[in-house]
Amino acid sequence: MPPRRATHRYFACPPTFYDVTYAINPWMDPSVPVDRDLAWRQWTRVVARMDELGARLHFIAPKAGCPDMVFLGDAGILCGSRFLCSRFRFPEREPESAHYLESFLTVGQEVITLPEGAVLEGLGDVCVQGERAILGYGPRSNAAGFAALGRFAPFLRVIAEVELPDPRFYHLATAVVFLDDDTVMYAPQGLTPAGVAAIRAAVPRTIAASDHDVFAHQACNCIVLGKHVLIDGYSQQLQAELGELGFTVEAFPASELKKGGGSVRCLVLPEIGPS
Ligand code: ARG
Protein backbone atom coordinates (compact mmCIF):
# COMPACT_ATOMS: atom_id res chain seq x y z
CA MET A 1 0.00 0.00 0.00
CA PRO A 2 1.42 3.42 -0.90
CA PRO A 3 2.09 5.90 1.89
CA ARG A 4 -0.90 7.94 2.97
CA ARG A 5 0.57 11.20 1.76
CA ALA A 6 2.69 10.30 -1.23
CA THR A 7 2.85 13.98 -2.16
CA HIS A 8 5.18 14.69 0.75
CA ARG A 9 8.91 14.46 0.22
CA TYR A 10 11.47 12.76 2.41
CA PHE A 11 15.11 13.78 2.61
CA ALA A 12 17.95 11.48 3.63
CA CYS A 13 21.75 11.61 3.74
CA PRO A 14 23.98 8.63 2.95
CA PRO A 15 26.24 7.42 5.79
CA THR A 16 29.45 8.11 3.86
CA PHE A 17 31.13 9.77 6.85
CA TYR A 18 29.03 8.15 9.55
CA ASP A 19 30.97 7.18 12.67
CA VAL A 20 30.86 7.35 16.44
CA THR A 21 33.74 9.68 17.31
CA TYR A 22 32.19 11.41 20.35
CA ALA A 23 29.51 10.62 22.92
CA ILE A 24 26.60 13.04 23.25
CA ASN A 25 24.03 10.45 24.30
CA PRO A 26 24.35 7.28 26.42
CA TRP A 27 24.11 4.95 23.42
CA MET A 28 27.34 6.30 21.95
CA ASP A 29 30.71 4.82 22.87
CA PRO A 30 33.59 5.88 20.61
CA SER A 31 35.61 2.86 21.76
CA VAL A 32 33.11 0.51 20.08
CA PRO A 33 33.95 0.30 16.38
CA VAL A 34 31.28 0.98 13.78
CA ASP A 35 31.11 -1.39 10.82
CA ARG A 36 30.69 1.28 8.18
CA ASP A 37 30.05 -1.13 5.32
CA LEU A 38 27.26 -2.67 7.34
CA ALA A 39 25.93 0.79 8.19
CA TRP A 40 25.76 1.47 4.45
CA ARG A 41 23.84 -1.71 3.81
CA GLN A 42 21.46 -1.03 6.68
CA TRP A 43 20.78 2.51 5.49
CA THR A 44 20.41 1.39 1.87
CA ARG A 45 17.84 -1.25 2.73
CA VAL A 46 15.70 1.33 4.53
CA VAL A 47 15.71 3.90 1.73
CA ALA A 48 15.21 1.21 -0.94
CA ARG A 49 12.15 -0.10 0.87
CA MET A 50 10.78 3.42 1.32
CA ASP A 51 11.22 3.98 -2.39
CA GLU A 52 9.41 0.73 -3.12
CA LEU A 53 6.56 1.86 -0.87
CA GLY A 54 6.16 5.05 -2.87
CA ALA A 55 7.97 7.59 -0.68
CA ARG A 56 9.37 10.55 -2.66
CA LEU A 57 13.00 10.48 -1.60
CA HIS A 58 15.59 13.22 -2.05
CA PHE A 59 19.17 13.19 -0.88
CA ILE A 60 21.50 15.69 0.75
CA ALA A 61 25.24 15.35 0.15
CA PRO A 62 27.19 14.14 3.19
CA LYS A 63 30.06 16.17 4.57
CA ALA A 64 33.32 14.97 6.07
CA GLY A 65 33.62 15.92 9.73
CA CYS A 66 29.86 15.58 10.30
CA PRO A 67 29.58 11.94 11.44
CA ASP A 68 25.96 12.30 12.64
CA MET A 69 24.58 13.63 9.35
CA VAL A 70 23.05 10.28 8.54
CA PHE A 71 20.44 11.22 11.16
CA LEU A 72 18.92 13.73 8.78
CA GLY A 73 15.64 13.76 10.66
CA ASP A 74 17.34 16.19 13.02
CA ALA A 75 18.35 18.63 10.25
CA GLY A 76 15.40 20.95 10.55
CA ILE A 77 11.71 21.25 9.74
CA LEU A 78 10.69 21.10 6.12
CA CYS A 79 7.35 22.56 5.08
CA GLY A 80 6.52 23.24 1.45
CA SER A 81 9.10 25.60 0.01
CA ARG A 82 10.48 26.57 3.46
CA PHE A 83 13.06 24.94 5.70
CA LEU A 84 13.63 25.87 9.35
CA CYS A 85 17.28 24.99 9.91
CA SER A 86 18.17 23.25 13.19
CA ARG A 87 20.50 24.61 15.80
CA PHE A 88 22.06 21.81 17.85
CA ARG A 89 22.66 21.69 21.58
CA PHE A 90 26.15 20.25 21.41
CA PRO A 91 29.12 21.77 19.56
CA GLU A 92 29.84 18.33 18.09
CA ARG A 93 26.81 18.65 15.81
CA GLU A 94 27.04 22.39 15.23
CA PRO A 95 28.94 22.13 11.91
CA GLU A 96 25.94 20.27 10.46
CA SER A 97 23.76 23.40 10.62
CA ALA A 98 25.80 25.43 8.15
CA HIS A 99 25.85 22.48 5.78
CA TYR A 100 22.05 22.00 6.03
CA LEU A 101 21.54 25.70 5.43
CA GLU A 102 23.56 25.56 2.23
CA SER A 103 22.19 22.18 1.10
CA PHE A 104 18.54 23.12 1.46
CA LEU A 105 19.16 26.46 -0.28
CA THR A 106 20.73 24.50 -3.13
CA VAL A 107 17.64 22.34 -3.53
CA GLY A 108 15.52 25.49 -3.80
CA GLN A 109 14.14 25.86 -0.29
CA GLU A 110 13.77 29.18 1.45
CA VAL A 111 15.86 28.71 4.58
CA ILE A 112 14.85 30.21 7.90
CA THR A 113 17.30 30.26 10.81
CA LEU A 114 16.62 30.19 14.53
CA PRO A 115 17.09 33.24 16.74
CA GLU A 116 20.08 33.40 19.06
CA GLY A 117 19.70 31.05 22.03
CA ALA A 118 17.02 28.92 20.40
CA VAL A 119 17.79 25.21 20.10
CA LEU A 120 15.68 22.97 17.89
CA GLU A 121 16.94 19.60 16.66
CA GLY A 122 14.51 19.13 13.78
CA LEU A 123 12.09 16.26 14.12
CA GLY A 124 14.26 14.86 16.91
CA ASP A 125 12.08 16.59 19.47
CA VAL A 126 8.84 17.10 17.54
CA CYS A 127 6.37 14.42 16.47
CA VAL A 128 4.05 15.66 13.74
CA GLN A 129 0.94 14.02 12.37
CA GLY A 130 -0.93 16.27 9.93
CA GLU A 131 -1.60 19.44 11.86
CA ARG A 132 -0.96 17.97 15.28
CA ALA A 133 2.32 18.01 17.13
CA ILE A 134 3.79 16.56 20.30
CA LEU A 135 6.82 18.39 21.71
CA GLY A 136 9.59 16.83 23.80
CA TYR A 137 11.47 18.78 26.45
CA GLY A 138 14.69 16.98 27.24
CA PRO A 139 18.41 17.70 27.05
CA ARG A 140 18.26 19.11 23.50
CA SER A 141 15.59 21.44 22.06
CA ASN A 142 14.41 24.35 24.21
CA ALA A 143 11.32 26.54 24.60
CA ALA A 144 12.78 29.24 22.33
CA GLY A 145 13.27 26.57 19.66
CA PHE A 146 9.68 25.43 19.95
CA ALA A 147 8.46 29.05 19.86
CA ALA A 148 10.34 29.48 16.56
CA LEU A 149 8.69 26.30 15.30
CA GLY A 150 5.29 27.79 16.17
CA ARG A 151 6.06 30.90 14.11
CA PHE A 152 7.43 28.81 11.24
CA ALA A 153 4.45 26.43 11.13
CA PRO A 154 1.50 28.27 12.69
CA PHE A 155 -0.89 25.58 11.48
CA LEU A 156 0.58 23.12 13.99
CA ARG A 157 -1.59 22.41 17.00
CA VAL A 158 0.40 21.18 19.98
CA ILE A 159 -1.64 18.37 21.54
CA ALA A 160 0.89 17.34 24.18
CA GLU A 161 4.15 18.58 25.64
CA VAL A 162 6.19 16.00 27.49
CA GLU A 163 9.37 15.90 29.51
CA LEU A 164 12.20 13.52 28.69
CA PRO A 165 13.85 12.91 32.08
CA ASP A 166 16.00 9.89 31.11
CA PRO A 167 19.14 10.68 29.06
CA ARG A 168 18.73 7.46 27.10
CA PHE A 169 15.66 9.14 25.61
CA TYR A 170 17.49 12.31 24.70
CA HIS A 171 15.13 13.02 21.78
CA LEU A 172 11.37 12.71 21.65
CA ALA A 173 11.90 10.59 18.52
CA THR A 174 13.32 7.85 20.75
CA ALA A 175 10.18 7.75 22.90
CA VAL A 176 7.07 8.72 20.91
CA VAL A 177 5.72 7.97 17.43
CA PHE A 178 2.40 8.49 15.67
CA LEU A 179 1.31 5.27 13.97
CA ASP A 180 -1.71 7.00 12.43
CA ASP A 181 -4.08 9.87 13.22
CA ASP A 182 -5.57 8.03 16.18
CA THR A 183 -2.65 6.03 17.50
CA VAL A 184 0.57 6.85 19.30
CA MET A 185 3.16 4.33 20.42
CA TYR A 186 5.29 5.53 23.32
CA ALA A 187 8.07 4.38 25.62
CA PRO A 188 6.83 4.82 29.21
CA GLN A 189 10.43 4.20 30.30
CA GLY A 190 11.45 7.55 28.83
CA LEU A 191 8.55 9.71 29.97
CA THR A 192 7.16 11.03 33.24
CA PRO A 193 3.75 9.84 34.49
CA ALA A 194 2.42 13.28 33.58
CA GLY A 195 3.85 12.90 30.07
CA VAL A 196 2.21 9.50 29.63
CA ALA A 197 -1.09 10.95 30.86
CA ALA A 198 -0.80 13.88 28.44
CA ILE A 199 -0.26 11.55 25.48
CA ARG A 200 -3.09 9.27 26.53
CA ALA A 201 -5.41 12.25 26.80
CA ALA A 202 -4.37 13.59 23.40
CA VAL A 203 -5.14 10.60 21.16
CA PRO A 204 -7.81 7.89 21.21
CA ARG A 205 -5.39 4.95 21.12
CA THR A 206 -1.97 4.43 22.65
CA ILE A 207 0.46 1.52 22.74
CA ALA A 208 3.10 1.33 25.45
CA ALA A 209 6.24 -0.34 24.12
CA SER A 210 7.90 -3.00 26.29
CA ASP A 211 11.39 -2.75 27.78
CA HIS A 212 12.68 -5.21 25.22
CA ASP A 213 11.22 -3.34 22.25
CA VAL A 214 12.45 -0.02 23.55
CA PHE A 215 15.95 -0.89 24.73
CA ALA A 216 16.89 -3.58 22.21
CA HIS A 217 15.14 -2.06 19.20
CA GLN A 218 14.39 1.64 19.79
CA ALA A 219 10.87 0.62 18.77
CA CYS A 220 9.47 4.16 18.82
CA ASN A 221 12.11 5.19 16.33
CA CYS A 222 10.29 3.45 13.50
CA ILE A 223 9.13 4.70 10.10
CA VAL A 224 5.43 4.45 9.37
CA LEU A 225 4.37 4.40 5.72
CA GLY A 226 0.67 3.69 5.47
CA LYS A 227 0.24 0.36 7.19
CA HIS A 228 3.92 -0.57 6.97
CA VAL A 229 6.09 -0.10 10.02
CA LEU A 230 9.84 -0.23 9.30
CA ILE A 231 11.58 -0.97 12.56
CA ASP A 232 14.95 -2.27 13.80
CA GLY A 233 13.28 -5.33 15.34
CA TYR A 234 10.29 -6.30 17.46
CA SER A 235 8.90 -8.74 19.98
CA GLN A 236 6.09 -11.11 19.07
CA GLN A 237 3.89 -9.13 21.41
CA LEU A 238 4.51 -5.89 19.54
CA GLN A 239 3.99 -7.61 16.22
CA ALA A 240 0.65 -8.95 17.47
CA GLU A 241 -0.46 -5.61 18.93
CA LEU A 242 0.36 -3.72 15.75
CA GLY A 243 -1.04 -6.55 13.64
CA GLU A 244 -4.41 -6.18 15.35
CA LEU A 245 -4.48 -2.59 14.18
CA GLY A 246 -3.70 -3.68 10.63
CA PHE A 247 -0.01 -2.77 10.62
CA THR A 248 2.68 -5.00 9.15
CA VAL A 249 6.01 -4.74 10.94
CA GLU A 250 9.10 -5.13 8.79
CA ALA A 251 12.52 -5.60 10.39
CA PHE A 252 15.35 -3.33 9.23
CA PRO A 253 18.25 -4.17 11.54
CA ALA A 254 20.03 -0.95 12.41
CA SER A 255 22.78 -2.21 14.74
CA GLU A 256 25.41 0.24 13.45
CA LEU A 257 23.08 3.24 13.59
CA LYS A 258 22.00 2.41 17.11
CA LYS A 259 25.67 2.78 18.10
CA GLY A 260 25.11 6.47 17.32
CA GLY A 261 21.93 6.51 19.38
CA GLY A 262 19.41 6.52 16.55
CA SER A 263 17.44 3.96 14.61
CA VAL A 264 15.57 4.00 11.31
CA ARG A 265 13.25 6.95 11.82
CA CYS A 266 16.08 9.44 12.45
CA LEU A 267 17.43 8.60 8.99
CA VAL A 268 14.73 10.52 7.18
CA LEU A 269 13.36 14.03 7.27
CA PRO A 270 9.75 13.94 6.08
CA GLU A 271 8.11 17.12 4.93
CA ILE A 272 5.35 18.32 7.24
CA GLY A 273 2.22 20.28 6.53
CA PRO A 274 -0.82 20.19 4.30
CA SER A 275 -0.40 18.14 1.12
N1 ARG B 1 24.26 10.83 17.67
C1 ARG B 1 23.08 11.60 17.36
C2 ARG B 1 22.80 12.59 18.50
O1 ARG B 1 23.04 12.25 19.64
C3 ARG B 1 21.93 10.68 17.12
C4 ARG B 1 20.68 11.39 16.75
C5 ARG B 1 19.60 10.43 16.33
N2 ARG B 1 18.41 11.12 16.03
C6 ARG B 1 17.30 11.03 16.76
N3 ARG B 1 16.28 11.79 16.38
N4 ARG B 1 17.22 10.29 17.82
O2 ARG B 1 22.37 13.68 18.29
What does this structure look like?
The chain is α/β, with parallel strands linked by helices. It has one domain (9-270): L-arginine/glycine Amidinotransferase, Chain A (5-stranded Propeller), CATH 3.75.10. The protein is built from 7 helices and 15 strands. A 3-stranded mixed β-sheet has the order 2-1-15, with helices on one face. Strands 3-4-5 form a 3-stranded mixed β-sheet, with helices on one face. Helix 2 (94-106) links the parallel strand 4 (82-85) and strand 5 (110-112). The longest helix is centred in the first third of the chain and has 17 residues, at 36-52. The two termini are 18 Å apart. Residues 24-25, 28, 68, 71, 73-74, 93, 124, 171, 173-174, 260-262, 266 line the site of arginine.
Quick rundown:
It is built from seven helices and 15 strands. It is α/β, with parallel strands linked by helices. It has a three-stranded mixed β-sheet, covered by helices on one side.
Detail the topology: elements first, then pairings.
Blueprint: E1 9-12, H1 36-52, E2 56-59, E3 76-79, E4 82-85, H2 94-106, E5 110-112, E6 126-129, E7 132-137, H3 143-152, E8 157-163, E9 176-180, E10 183-186, H4 193-202, E11 205-208, H5 211-216, E12 223-225, E13 228-231, H6 236-244, E14 248-251, H7 255-258, E15 268-270
Bound molecules: arginine.
Which strand order does the major sheet show? 2-1-15
Oligomeric organization of the protein chains? single chain
Q: Which topology does CATH recognise?
A: L-arginine/glycine Amidinotransferase, Chain A
Helix content: 25-40%
Low-confidence stretches: 1-5
End-to-end distance: 18 Å
Count of strand segments: 15
Radius of gyration based on Cα positions: 17 Å
Q: Summarize the main sheet.
A: 3 strands, mixed
Text of the CATH class: Alpha Beta
* Cα shape: globular
